[in-house]
What does this fold into?
Amino acid sequence: MNRKTTVDSKTELIKELRARTGAGVMDCRTAVEQAGGDLEKAVELLRARGLATAAKKASRIASEGLVEAYVHAGGRVGALVEVNCETDFVARTEEFKRLAHDVALQVTAAAPQYVSREAIPLDVVETQRQEFARELVGKHAAAVEGRLEKWFTDVVLLEQPFIRDESKRVRDILTEAIAKFGENILVRRFARFKLGD
It folds into this structure.
């Protein structure tokens, strides 16, 4: 294999990695080099960096952003969401607008009740735990906790499988956005409306 072929294949790997992750060219180049040309390993390296970046940025104030609306065809159900970021520059980008739209679509389709686990009042969690314990009398405590975990994925927006890619959760989509934009991004609140409810 000559040098030109090697450079061309590396360039193709970087393009593919960018398309899959949305990361910057230099980040993709570094990940491809560190992964020895293994695309899947490069994706995992970028994901790990994204998680580390997200953890660092989580404490930063996110007071800019968008309020986005989605109304399903027929006008019978819709949602309003507030998605925050750190700067109005990011809030005005098409990618951020698409993220806010996807979150509104998620709320409309999946009907979460809370943004995060931390937003659920403790008495509600305890009531739910006791209800599952009554339903599962004689079962191990792990069965009750398993049902509680399943309940979290139903009612908590960040825990739900993302409707556009069910291999990811909504929180994973936000983490990827934090890594991509380099800012703290969070869903502050939402409201879901259904005709007659």
User: Anything to note?
Assistant: The chain is about 55% helix and 15% strand. Helices lie at 3-21, 25-34, 39-57, 88-91, 94-110, 122-135, 141-155, 170-181. Residues 1-5 have pLDDT under 50 and may be disordered.
